[in-house]
Amino acid sequence: MANESVSVKMDGPQKAYRGKKLRIAIIGCGGIAQTHLGAYRKNPAVEVVAGVDIRADRLAIMRDKWGVKPEALFGADLASGKELSKTAWRDMLAAMGDKVDAVDVCTPNGVHCQPVVDCCKAGRHAFVEKPMAMSVDECKRMVAAAKQGGVKLSVGFQQRYRPAFKSLVEARDNGAFGDILFMKVRRLRRRGIPNWGVFGRKELQGGGPLIDIGVHFIECAYEFMGRPKPVAATGNTWSYLGNRKSETLVRCPWPGWDWKTYTVEDLAIGQVRFENGALMQIETSFAAHIEENDVAGFWAMGTKGGCEFPSGKIFTDQNHTMVNITPAYLDPAGDEWDSLFATKLGNWVDGCLKGTPLGATGDDGLNVQRILNGLYDSAAAGGKEVAIH
Ligand SMILES: NC(=O)c1ccc[n+]([C@@H]2O[C@H](COP(=O)([O-])OP(=O)(O)OC[C@H]3O[C@@H](n4cnc5c(N)ncnc54)[C@H](O)[C@@H]3O)[C@@H](O)[C@H]2O)c1
Questions:
Q1: What whole-number percentage of the chain has pLDDT above 90?
Q2: pLDDT for residue 2
Q3: With bands split at pLDDT 50, 70 and 90, how would you rate the model's confidence at 11?
Q4: What is the whole-number distance in angstroms between the Cα of residue 257 and the centre of ligand 1?
Q5: What is the DSSP string of 303-368?
Q6: 0.85 exceeded by the pTM?
Q7: Residue 75 belongs to what domain range?
Q8: Are residues 176 and 64 located together in one domain of the fold?
Q9: Ligand 1 pocket by C-beta < 6 Å: which residues?
Q10: Is residue 74 part of a domain?
Q11: Which of 158, 185, 200 is the last residue before a domain boundary?
Protein backbone atom coordinates (compact mmCIF):
# COMPACT_ATOMS: atom_id res chain seq x y z
CA MET A 1 0.00 0.00 0.00
CA ALA A 2 1.24 3.48 -0.84
CA ASN A 3 2.23 5.77 1.98
CA GLU A 4 -0.54 8.12 3.09
CA SER A 5 0.31 11.80 2.66
CA VAL A 6 -1.12 12.52 6.11
CA SER A 7 -0.20 10.14 8.86
CA VAL A 8 -3.06 8.91 10.99
CA LYS A 9 -0.67 7.21 13.39
CA MET A 10 -1.18 8.33 16.98
CA ASP A 11 1.82 9.14 19.13
CA GLY A 12 1.80 6.26 21.57
CA PRO A 13 3.76 5.92 24.79
CA GLN A 14 7.53 5.72 24.34
CA LYS A 15 8.55 2.24 23.27
CA ALA A 16 9.55 -0.04 26.10
CA TYR A 17 13.29 -0.64 26.06
CA ARG A 18 14.54 -3.98 27.20
CA GLY A 19 18.26 -3.71 26.49
CA LYS A 20 21.04 -2.61 28.79
CA LYS A 21 20.85 1.08 29.62
CA LEU A 22 23.79 3.45 29.66
CA ARG A 23 23.91 5.02 33.13
CA ILE A 24 25.39 8.48 32.75
CA ALA A 25 26.81 11.07 35.17
CA ILE A 26 26.74 14.67 33.95
CA ILE A 27 29.86 16.64 34.87
CA GLY A 28 29.10 20.37 34.55
CA CYS A 29 25.34 20.87 34.80
CA GLY A 30 25.09 24.32 33.20
CA GLY A 31 23.66 25.65 29.95
CA ILE A 32 24.57 23.03 27.36
CA ALA A 33 24.03 20.18 29.83
CA GLN A 34 20.34 21.11 29.79
CA THR A 35 20.19 20.40 26.05
CA HIS A 36 21.98 17.09 26.64
CA LEU A 37 19.55 16.19 29.44
CA GLY A 38 16.59 16.93 27.15
CA ALA A 39 18.05 14.57 24.54
CA TYR A 40 18.72 11.85 27.12
CA ARG A 41 15.18 12.07 28.47
CA LYS A 42 13.92 11.07 25.01
CA ASN A 43 16.45 8.26 24.62
CA PRO A 44 15.10 5.12 26.29
CA ALA A 45 18.59 3.56 26.33
CA VAL A 46 19.87 6.22 28.74
CA GLU A 47 19.47 6.82 32.45
CA VAL A 48 21.04 9.92 34.00
CA VAL A 49 22.06 8.77 37.45
CA ALA A 50 24.42 11.44 38.82
CA GLY A 51 25.42 15.07 38.52
CA VAL A 52 28.60 16.98 39.35
CA ASP A 53 28.90 20.77 39.54
CA ILE A 54 30.60 23.36 41.71
CA ARG A 55 27.32 25.30 41.90
CA ALA A 56 24.57 24.16 44.24
CA ASP A 57 21.85 25.86 42.17
CA ARG A 58 22.86 23.77 39.17
CA LEU A 59 22.75 20.59 41.25
CA ALA A 60 19.31 21.59 42.54
CA ILE A 61 18.09 21.64 38.93
CA MET A 62 19.50 18.14 38.46
CA ARG A 63 17.45 17.03 41.46
CA ASP A 64 14.25 18.99 40.85
CA LYS A 65 13.96 18.94 37.07
CA TRP A 66 15.85 15.84 36.02
CA GLY A 67 15.09 13.58 38.99
CA VAL A 68 18.65 12.75 40.07
CA LYS A 69 18.77 11.53 43.66
CA PRO A 70 20.33 14.01 46.14
CA GLU A 71 22.88 11.40 47.22
CA ALA A 72 24.10 11.21 43.60
CA LEU A 73 24.91 14.95 43.37
CA PHE A 74 28.49 16.03 43.94
CA GLY A 75 30.63 19.18 44.10
CA ALA A 76 28.48 21.56 46.13
CA ASP A 77 26.35 21.43 49.25
CA LEU A 78 22.67 21.77 48.41
CA ALA A 79 21.73 23.01 51.90
CA SER A 80 24.37 25.73 52.36
CA GLY A 81 25.00 26.43 48.67
CA LYS A 82 28.75 26.13 49.25
CA GLU A 83 31.18 24.79 46.68
CA LEU A 84 32.79 21.63 48.06
CA SER A 85 35.33 20.55 45.44
CA LYS A 86 36.60 21.49 41.99
CA THR A 87 37.39 17.83 41.24
CA ALA A 88 34.19 16.26 42.55
CA TRP A 89 33.96 13.81 39.64
CA ARG A 90 36.47 11.83 41.69
CA ASP A 91 34.04 11.79 44.64
CA MET A 92 31.33 10.74 42.20
CA LEU A 93 33.43 7.85 40.87
CA ALA A 94 34.24 6.68 44.41
CA ALA A 95 30.68 6.95 45.71
CA MET A 96 28.77 5.68 42.64
CA GLY A 97 31.14 2.79 41.81
CA ASP A 98 29.73 0.52 39.12
CA LYS A 99 26.38 2.35 39.14
CA VAL A 100 27.85 4.74 36.52
CA ASP A 101 28.87 3.47 33.07
CA ALA A 102 29.70 6.77 31.38
CA VAL A 103 30.24 10.47 31.92
CA ASP A 104 29.16 13.45 29.85
CA VAL A 105 31.53 16.37 30.42
CA CYS A 106 29.90 19.79 29.92
CA THR A 107 32.26 21.97 31.97
CA PRO A 108 34.17 25.00 30.63
CA ASN A 109 37.00 24.07 28.24
CA GLY A 110 39.69 24.27 30.95
CA VAL A 111 37.88 21.52 32.88
CA HIS A 112 37.50 19.04 29.99
CA CYS A 113 40.77 17.13 30.18
CA GLN A 114 41.06 16.02 33.80
CA PRO A 115 37.56 14.61 34.30
CA VAL A 116 37.83 12.73 31.00
CA VAL A 117 41.25 11.34 31.92
CA ASP A 118 40.18 10.30 35.42
CA CYS A 119 36.87 8.78 34.32
CA CYS A 120 38.25 6.96 31.26
CA LYS A 121 41.09 5.50 33.31
CA ALA A 122 38.44 4.31 35.75
CA GLY A 123 36.74 2.47 32.86
CA ARG A 124 33.90 4.92 32.16
CA HIS A 125 32.98 5.92 28.60
CA ALA A 126 33.19 9.67 28.06
CA PHE A 127 31.53 12.29 25.92
CA VAL A 128 33.15 15.72 26.05
CA GLU A 129 31.70 18.92 24.69
CA LYS A 130 33.66 20.87 22.08
CA PRO A 131 36.41 21.95 21.88
CA MET A 132 38.02 18.76 23.08
CA ALA A 133 40.38 20.62 25.44
CA MET A 134 42.78 23.55 25.72
CA SER A 135 45.90 22.06 24.14
CA VAL A 136 47.19 19.24 21.98
CA ASP A 137 48.91 17.68 25.00
CA GLU A 138 45.63 17.59 26.92
CA CYS A 139 43.90 15.89 23.96
CA LYS A 140 46.68 13.31 23.76
CA ARG A 141 46.25 12.53 27.45
CA MET A 142 42.51 12.08 26.92
CA VAL A 143 42.95 9.77 23.92
CA ALA A 144 45.55 7.72 25.84
CA ALA A 145 43.27 7.44 28.89
CA ALA A 146 40.37 6.16 26.73
CA LYS A 147 42.67 3.59 25.20
CA GLN A 148 43.98 2.57 28.60
CA GLY A 149 40.44 2.25 30.00
CA GLY A 150 39.17 0.43 26.89
CA VAL A 151 36.29 2.92 26.61
CA LYS A 152 34.58 5.07 23.97
CA LEU A 153 35.48 8.75 23.81
CA SER A 154 33.51 11.13 21.61
CA VAL A 155 33.69 14.91 21.15
CA GLY A 156 30.65 17.20 20.89
CA PHE A 157 30.75 18.35 17.27
CA GLN A 158 27.27 18.36 15.76
CA GLN A 159 27.61 20.09 12.37
CA ARG A 160 28.69 16.83 10.75
CA TYR A 161 25.22 15.40 11.41
CA ARG A 162 23.38 18.04 9.37
CA PRO A 163 21.56 16.74 6.29
CA ALA A 164 23.54 19.04 3.95
CA PHE A 165 26.82 17.69 5.29
CA LYS A 166 25.79 14.12 4.62
CA SER A 167 24.65 15.08 1.12
CA LEU A 168 27.95 16.84 0.32
CA VAL A 169 30.01 13.95 1.68
CA GLU A 170 28.10 11.58 -0.59
CA ALA A 171 28.80 13.88 -3.55
CA ARG A 172 32.48 14.01 -2.55
CA ASP A 173 32.65 10.22 -2.37
CA ASN A 174 31.08 10.04 -5.83
CA GLY A 175 33.90 12.24 -7.15
CA ALA A 176 31.87 15.45 -7.60
CA PHE A 177 34.68 17.72 -6.43
CA GLY A 178 37.82 15.93 -7.64
CA ASP A 179 40.80 16.85 -5.45
CA ILE A 180 39.85 19.37 -2.78
CA LEU A 181 42.35 22.22 -2.98
CA PHE A 182 40.96 24.97 -0.82
CA MET A 183 38.53 25.28 2.09
CA LYS A 184 37.24 28.53 3.45
CA VAL A 185 35.73 28.43 6.93
CA ARG A 186 33.78 31.40 8.23
CA ARG A 187 32.12 31.73 11.62
CA LEU A 188 31.60 35.41 12.17
CA ARG A 189 29.33 37.25 14.56
CA ARG A 190 28.88 40.95 14.05
CA ARG A 191 28.27 41.46 17.79
CA GLY A 192 27.92 38.25 19.76
CA ILE A 193 30.22 38.26 22.74
CA PRO A 194 28.80 35.70 25.20
CA ASN A 195 27.48 37.40 28.34
CA TRP A 196 27.23 34.18 30.38
CA GLY A 197 29.68 31.55 31.57
CA VAL A 198 33.43 32.13 31.28
CA PHE A 199 33.73 32.50 27.51
CA GLY A 200 35.84 35.67 27.79
CA ARG A 201 38.46 34.16 30.06
CA LYS A 202 41.42 32.77 28.21
CA GLU A 203 42.75 30.79 31.15
CA LEU A 204 39.47 28.83 31.38
CA GLN A 205 38.50 28.68 27.68
CA GLY A 206 41.79 28.68 25.76
CA GLY A 207 40.65 31.48 23.46
CA GLY A 208 37.67 33.28 21.94
CA PRO A 209 35.65 32.75 18.75
CA LEU A 210 38.24 30.53 17.09
CA ILE A 211 38.13 27.82 19.77
CA ASP A 212 34.52 28.44 20.79
CA ILE A 213 32.46 28.78 17.61
CA GLY A 214 34.92 28.52 14.71
CA VAL A 215 35.86 25.07 15.93
CA HIS A 216 32.51 23.60 14.80
CA PHE A 217 33.04 24.56 11.16
CA ILE A 218 36.76 23.83 11.18
CA GLU A 219 35.86 20.33 12.34
CA CYS A 220 33.29 19.61 9.68
CA ALA A 221 35.39 21.26 6.95
CA TYR A 222 38.32 19.10 8.02
CA GLU A 223 36.16 15.99 8.00
CA PHE A 224 34.85 16.97 4.55
CA MET A 225 38.43 17.28 3.23
CA GLY A 226 39.07 13.70 4.29
CA ARG A 227 41.24 14.60 7.29
CA PRO A 228 44.60 15.34 5.64
CA LYS A 229 47.53 15.92 7.99
CA PRO A 230 47.87 19.60 9.00
CA VAL A 231 51.51 20.68 8.74
CA ALA A 232 51.69 24.46 9.21
CA ALA A 233 49.60 27.43 10.32
CA THR A 234 49.68 31.20 10.10
CA GLY A 235 47.26 33.19 12.19
CA ASN A 236 46.53 36.53 13.74
CA THR A 237 44.17 37.47 16.56
CA TRP A 238 42.93 40.89 17.69
CA SER A 239 41.03 42.18 20.74
CA TYR A 240 39.47 45.61 20.41
CA LEU A 241 35.86 45.43 21.66
CA GLY A 242 35.22 42.66 24.18
CA ASN A 243 37.63 44.24 26.60
CA ARG A 244 35.56 47.45 26.64
CA LYS A 245 32.41 48.15 28.64
CA SER A 246 29.47 47.04 26.48
CA GLU A 247 27.16 49.80 27.75
CA THR A 248 29.46 52.41 26.29
CA LEU A 249 29.27 50.78 22.85
CA VAL A 250 26.15 50.02 20.83
CA ARG A 251 22.91 48.08 21.32
CA CYS A 252 23.45 44.37 20.67
CA PRO A 253 21.76 41.03 21.38
CA TRP A 254 23.95 40.04 24.34
CA PRO A 255 24.97 43.20 26.17
CA GLY A 256 26.69 43.32 29.53
CA TRP A 257 29.49 40.85 29.00
CA ASP A 258 32.20 40.75 31.64
CA TRP A 259 34.63 43.10 29.93
CA LYS A 260 36.95 43.34 32.93
CA THR A 261 37.89 39.65 32.72
CA TYR A 262 37.80 39.51 28.89
CA THR A 263 41.18 38.21 27.72
CA VAL A 264 40.26 36.32 24.54
CA GLU A 265 40.34 37.55 20.95
CA ASP A 266 37.45 39.31 19.17
CA LEU A 267 38.69 38.31 15.71
CA ALA A 268 40.92 35.46 14.53
CA ILE A 269 42.04 35.03 10.93
CA GLY A 270 44.36 32.32 9.73
CA GLN A 271 45.42 29.74 7.23
CA VAL A 272 46.36 26.09 7.63
CA ARG A 273 48.47 24.11 5.18
CA PHE A 274 48.04 20.35 4.82
CA GLU A 275 50.49 17.65 3.81
CA ASN A 276 48.59 17.06 0.53
CA GLY A 277 49.05 20.73 -0.43
CA ALA A 278 45.48 21.80 0.36
CA LEU A 279 44.80 25.02 2.27
CA MET A 280 42.13 26.02 4.78
CA GLN A 281 41.42 29.68 5.35
CA ILE A 282 39.67 30.54 8.61
CA GLU A 283 37.76 33.66 9.69
CA THR A 284 36.09 33.77 13.10
CA SER A 285 34.79 36.56 15.31
CA PHE A 286 32.66 37.48 18.30
CA ALA A 287 32.60 41.07 17.02
CA ALA A 288 33.40 41.91 13.40
CA HIS A 289 32.29 45.02 11.53
CA ILE A 290 30.48 43.22 8.72
CA GLU A 291 27.05 43.53 7.13
CA GLU A 292 25.61 40.21 8.29
CA ASN A 293 24.83 39.45 11.93
CA ASP A 294 25.97 35.87 11.68
CA VAL A 295 28.00 33.99 9.07
CA ALA A 296 28.55 30.27 9.52
CA GLY A 297 29.76 27.74 7.04
CA PHE A 298 32.43 26.39 4.78
CA TRP A 299 33.13 26.77 1.09
CA ALA A 300 35.14 24.14 -0.79
CA MET A 301 36.97 24.38 -4.10
CA GLY A 302 38.12 21.26 -5.88
CA THR A 303 39.49 20.36 -9.29
CA LYS A 304 36.07 19.24 -10.58
CA GLY A 305 33.63 21.19 -8.45
CA GLY A 306 33.02 23.32 -5.41
CA CYS A 307 30.37 23.53 -2.74
CA GLU A 308 28.92 25.48 0.12
CA PHE A 309 27.83 24.29 3.55
CA PRO A 310 25.26 24.43 5.09
CA SER A 311 23.27 25.36 1.95
CA GLY A 312 24.48 22.14 0.32
CA LYS A 313 24.93 23.92 -3.05
CA ILE A 314 27.34 22.44 -5.58
CA PHE A 315 29.12 24.45 -8.30
CA THR A 316 30.39 22.46 -11.24
CA ASP A 317 30.36 21.97 -15.02
CA GLN A 318 27.81 19.83 -16.84
CA ASN A 319 27.14 19.53 -20.59
CA HIS A 320 29.78 22.18 -21.33
CA THR A 321 27.95 24.56 -19.04
CA MET A 322 28.76 25.93 -15.61
CA VAL A 323 25.93 24.89 -13.31
CA ASN A 324 24.89 25.60 -9.75
CA ILE A 325 23.08 22.70 -8.12
CA THR A 326 20.81 23.51 -5.20
CA PRO A 327 19.28 20.71 -3.16
CA ALA A 328 15.53 20.70 -3.63
CA TYR A 329 14.97 19.09 -0.25
CA LEU A 330 17.09 18.65 2.85
CA ASP A 331 15.19 17.48 5.91
CA PRO A 332 14.75 20.69 7.95
CA ALA A 333 14.05 18.68 11.10
CA GLY A 334 17.57 17.25 10.86
CA ASP A 335 19.00 20.77 11.22
CA GLU A 336 17.17 21.62 14.40
CA TRP A 337 19.27 22.22 17.49
CA ASP A 338 17.62 19.58 19.69
CA SER A 339 17.62 17.04 16.91
CA LEU A 340 21.36 17.56 16.22
CA PHE A 341 22.14 17.01 19.89
CA ALA A 342 19.92 13.92 20.04
CA THR A 343 21.79 12.54 17.01
CA LYS A 344 25.32 13.28 18.21
CA LEU A 345 24.67 12.01 21.74
CA GLY A 346 22.73 9.02 20.39
CA ASN A 347 25.73 8.16 18.22
CA TRP A 348 27.94 8.00 21.31
CA VAL A 349 25.35 6.10 23.39
CA ASP A 350 25.02 3.49 20.62
CA GLY A 351 28.81 3.31 20.36
CA CYS A 352 29.06 2.58 24.08
CA LEU A 353 26.21 0.06 24.21
CA LYS A 354 26.50 -1.67 20.83
CA GLY A 355 30.00 -0.89 19.61
CA THR A 356 28.73 1.00 16.54
CA PRO A 357 31.21 3.47 14.96
CA LEU A 358 31.57 6.85 16.62
CA GLY A 359 31.09 10.09 14.68
CA ALA A 360 33.63 12.47 16.17
CA THR A 361 36.28 10.46 17.98
CA GLY A 362 39.01 11.55 20.37
CA ASP A 363 41.47 11.40 17.46
CA ASP A 364 39.25 13.78 15.47
CA GLY A 365 39.16 16.17 18.42
CA LEU A 366 42.95 15.95 18.70
CA ASN A 367 43.48 16.81 15.02
CA VAL A 368 41.14 19.77 15.26
CA GLN A 369 43.03 20.92 18.35
CA ARG A 370 46.28 20.74 16.36
CA ILE A 371 44.74 23.23 13.91
CA LEU A 372 43.41 25.54 16.65
CA ASN A 373 46.63 25.57 18.60
CA GLY A 374 48.73 26.00 15.45
CA LEU A 375 46.74 29.17 14.68
CA TYR A 376 47.03 30.48 18.24
CA ASP A 377 50.76 29.67 18.35
CA SER A 378 51.29 31.55 15.10
CA ALA A 379 49.33 34.54 16.42
CA ALA A 380 51.49 34.51 19.56
CA ALA A 381 54.56 34.52 17.29
CA GLY A 382 53.30 37.66 15.54
CA GLY A 383 51.66 35.83 12.66
CA LYS A 384 54.74 33.87 11.56
CA GLU A 385 54.13 30.43 10.06
CA VAL A 386 54.49 27.69 12.69
CA ALA A 387 54.82 23.96 12.16
CA ILE A 388 51.98 21.72 13.34
CA HIS A 389 53.07 18.41 14.84
N1 LIG B 1 28.15 21.87 21.04
C2 LIG B 1 27.73 23.11 21.18
O3 LIG B 1 27.14 23.70 20.25
C4 LIG B 1 27.97 23.82 22.47
C5 LIG B 1 27.15 24.92 22.82
C6 LIG B 1 27.40 25.57 24.03
C7 LIG B 1 28.45 25.15 24.85
N8 LIG B 1 29.25 24.12 24.46
C9 LIG B 1 30.40 23.72 25.28
O10 LIG B 1 29.93 23.21 26.53
C11 LIG B 1 30.83 23.58 27.57
C12 LIG B 1 30.03 24.29 28.67
O13 LIG B 1 29.43 25.44 28.15
P14 LIG B 1 28.08 26.04 28.82
O15 LIG B 1 27.57 27.05 27.87
O16 LIG B 1 27.19 24.94 29.26
O17 LIG B 1 28.71 26.79 30.07
P18 LIG B 1 28.01 27.04 31.48
O19 LIG B 1 28.87 28.03 32.18
O20 LIG B 1 26.56 27.33 31.30
O21 LIG B 1 28.11 25.60 32.21
C22 LIG B 1 29.32 25.07 32.70
C23 LIG B 1 29.02 24.39 34.04
O24 LIG B 1 30.23 23.77 34.49
C25 LIG B 1 30.31 23.99 35.90
N26 LIG B 1 31.70 23.83 36.34
C27 LIG B 1 32.72 24.70 36.21
N28 LIG B 1 33.84 24.18 36.77
C29 LIG B 1 33.51 22.96 37.26
C30 LIG B 1 34.22 21.94 37.95
N31 LIG B 1 35.50 22.09 38.28
N32 LIG B 1 33.57 20.81 38.28
C33 LIG B 1 32.24 20.67 38.00
N34 LIG B 1 31.51 21.60 37.35
C35 LIG B 1 32.14 22.73 36.98
C36 LIG B 1 29.77 25.40 36.07
O37 LIG B 1 29.41 25.67 37.42
C38 LIG B 1 28.59 25.39 35.12
O39 LIG B 1 27.41 24.95 35.75
C40 LIG B 1 31.92 24.44 26.93
O41 LIG B 1 33.04 23.64 26.69
C42 LIG B 1 31.31 24.91 25.62
O43 LIG B 1 32.27 25.13 24.60
C44 LIG B 1 29.01 23.44 23.30
A1: 92
A2: 45
A3: very low
A4: 17
A5: SSEEEEETT--EEEEETTEEEEE--S---GGGGSHHHHHHHHHHHHHHHHHH-PPPSSBHHHHHHH
A6: yes
A7: 22-158
A8: no
A9: 27-33, 52-55, 58, 75, 86, 88, 106-109, 111, 129-130, 156, 158, 197, 212
A10: yes
A11: 158
